[in-house]
Amino acid sequence: MTSDLPGRLDHFIAGAWSPSADGATFAVADPVGNRVYAQVAAGGPADVDRAARAAHCAFTDGPWPAMAARQRARVLNRIADGIARRGARIAELETFDTGLPVTQAHGQAERAAENFRFFADMIVTAHEDAFRTGTSQLGYVIRKPAGPAGLITPWNTPFMLETWKLAPSLAAGCPVILKPAEWSPLSASLLPEIMTEAGVPDGVFNMVHGIGEVAGAALVTHPLVPRISFTGETSTGQAIMAAAAPGLKGLSMELGGKSPCVVFADADLDAATDSALFGVFSLNGERCTAGSRILAERSVYDALVSRLADRAERIRTGPPSDPATEVGALIHPDHYHRVLSYVQSGLDEGARLVAGGRRPAHLPSGNYLAPTVFADVRPEMRIFREEIFGPVVCVTPFEDEADAIRLANDTRYGLAAYIWTRDLRRGHRVAAAVDAGMLWLNSHNVRDLRTPFGGVKASGLGREGGQHSLDFYTDSRIVHVALEDARVPRFGTEGT
Ligand code: NAD
After folding, report:
1. How far apart are CA 84 and CA 91, in angstroms?
2. Nearest C-alpha to atom 20 of ligand 1 is from which residue?
3. Whose CA is nearest to atom 22 of ligand 1?
């Protein structure tokens, strides 16, 4: 049982906790008991305005944007230390609030600290470009933080995803306004203390809780916030892009996915099975890069389906706080029912249920779904086409390489893809032909923080990760300097 839960979560603006200007709150519940455990300040335009002004003031008058990179990096490393020290508590809160299995929440907390260490290293080694044009001209780049950044995050692995945006934006010198997801605000309540303790100046880190369509929307249109980094559903991303257009804001969009895991007959089937299962059932399947469509070459299709079904049946679904649990509880009853409606849709459309599909018998309450495998899924079925965002996977046979590529690309999304084959030439061919932002060949989802993260098609716009993140949170300006007498066409000299 989680101890010492705060009964109330407030905003953090200009270095101080504060309720909403109008006193509004919303209730938040845990996914196991579905009981309200806290009231959360429901931010409105007035709260967002106060946070944006605090961030703007920290940007124009505060030390943060102009601080030497080494000094800022020290603060970022202290933030990482503060996260590492609280790793167990972060995991405990995250598990309680989101239903994520606690061992996986531990891993996410470690990754959160690593995000800060990584970007601390990046800024001390960052350099600006210079360009020589023959002997006549020199151009050099001045890279400046872009200004206050609005960071809007989803409820899956919330703490890690918040730090994935906080670390590069703060590293780049931008003050921030974080808007955590309304279903998972708990672990973010540790951030103000971590930031303050690490020496982040007041006004540099601001957090406004609230409902997306209210607090998030106010942030997206606020004139003092030139950058919005968003992670969430594709439809929300579309609404944000439309709302941000009049303000011509810089946008980074990390959106939904329906990623294929393509298994050729010559693949290492043991490794492919492990990866396919982990890829879709880790993090409760509430994972943007989940390999939720397994495409298997016809000659190994039946064998793979029975392996997947057998292993899925044996995955330990249970209380998220139990270290033995592999799949926990889904975040919210609304989401749970949405995922269940996809199971029903799979059955209605004639897919063959080979594992799960129901609440496990030993878990009579809470948002639990046994890991679910559908075989014989056809591309026109909803479960093949739509992002389910839960522990549900489709398996579909393919005939040859061309068919595999066609099926892999038969989706509006293009976030990730996983390819399993021992034929490396084919592996590279397929990797080049599948429309996805991130591909793993004979490998599961391991990330190198230097690499571009993001999707194509309806999965997103722009890239974060490494230099891409720093590019997003900074403006590059070029200064051109003449090194010789400038030869300028002399307008207006005729006839004198
Ligand atoms: P969501 O789009 O419902 O909400 C995400 C955030 O946006 C929340 O903080 C919400 O309050 C806010 N929001 C909602 N409406 C808004 C509006 N009109 N203006 C501004 N903000 C608004 O997403 P979710 O259900 O929290 O998260 C699940 C989705 O996130 C899935 O589609 C998943 O694939 C995606 N996701 C993508 C990535 C990635 O990197 N590509 C990573 C994780 C999750």
Report:
1. 11
2. 216
3. 212
- What does DSSP assign to residue 391? S
Token readout for 357 is 């599909």
pTM of the predicted model as reported, rounded to 2 decimal places: 0.97
Q: Which amino acid residue places its CA nearest to atom 38 of ligand 1?
A: 288
| Mean per-residue pLDDT, 223-234 | 98
CA of 212 to the centre of ligand 1 (A): 9
Per-residue confidence (pLDDT) for residue 184, from 0 to 100 = 98
8 Å CB contact between 249 and 228? yes
pLDDT at residue 1 in the model? 53
C-alpha of residue 310 to centroid of ligand 1, in Å: 33
Residue with CA at minimum distance from ligand 1 atom 8: 181
Percent of the chain with pLDDT over 90: 97
Tell me which residues have their CB closer than 6 angstroms to ligand 1. Answer: 152-156, 161, 179, 181-182, 212-213, 216-217, 220, 231-233, 236, 239-240, 254-257, 288, 387, 389, 415, 455, 460
Whether the predicted pLDDT of 394 surpasses 80: yes
Q: Is 288 a catalytic residue?
A: yes
pLDDT digits (tens, 9 = 90+) for 112-147: 999 999 999 999 999 999 999 999 999 999 999 999
Mention every residue, 6+ apart, whose C-beta is less than 8 A from residue 455. 254, 255, 257, 413, 414, 415, 416, 436, 437, 438
The overall average pLDDT reported for the chain is 97
H or E element in which residue 16 lies: strand 16-18
- Number of the ligand 1 atom closest to the C-alpha atom of 455: 41
Per the listing, tokens 């946070």 go with 51
| Inter-residue contact 31 to 366 (CB < 8 Å) | yes
Give the model's confidence band at 486: pLDDT under 50 very low, under 70 low, under 90 confident, else very high.
Answer: confident
SS (H, E, C) 444-483: CCCCCCCCCECCCHHHEECCECHHHHHHHHEEEEEEEEEC
In the structure, what pLDDT confidence band is assigned to residue 496 with cuts at 50, 70 and 90? low
